[in-house]
Amino acid sequence: MKRAKWTLACLGGLLGLAVTLSVEAQAPGGKKLPTLKEAVAADTRLKTATVDKVLKALGPAVSEQIRAGREVTLPGLGTLRVVRVAEYKDLVNGLPAVIPAKNYIEFAPTSELNADANAPGAVPARTVPAYEFQVDPNHNPGMRTDGQRVPRSRTK
Description:
Layout: H1 2-30, H2 36-44, H3 48-67, E1 72-74, E2 78-85, E3 88-92, E4 95-99, E5 102-109, H4 111-117
Antiparallel strand pairs: 1-2, 2-5, 3-4
């Protein structure tokens, strides 16, 4: 009888230890990250509805400032500004073309935001493949030579 009680107590203890260890191992992954609205509402002690209104009004306000030619600095994030790429020449479908000048929005992040993006555990939303030049296999060799070096035929 005593042996059965000890066996049952040991099994209960092992089961409790196993549950405790598994909960600790799952804690970081199981923690739910709040949405942007929820995080801002918690930090500012404002209602989520108020934060939602501010976030919805932010886009049109930034657009108005950009149209007026101003830089928009978002504290802790970076600066939005208009940059102009001048007119240039390029090949379009194998033909030379003049690409007209165009304005673009440039975002210059703060150094803290760049550090956060490169912190361990930061997951990229998209991975851009590396550029690799590939020779066109359908390219015709030059007509004057057969693709090999030819010694000079002209002498002085």
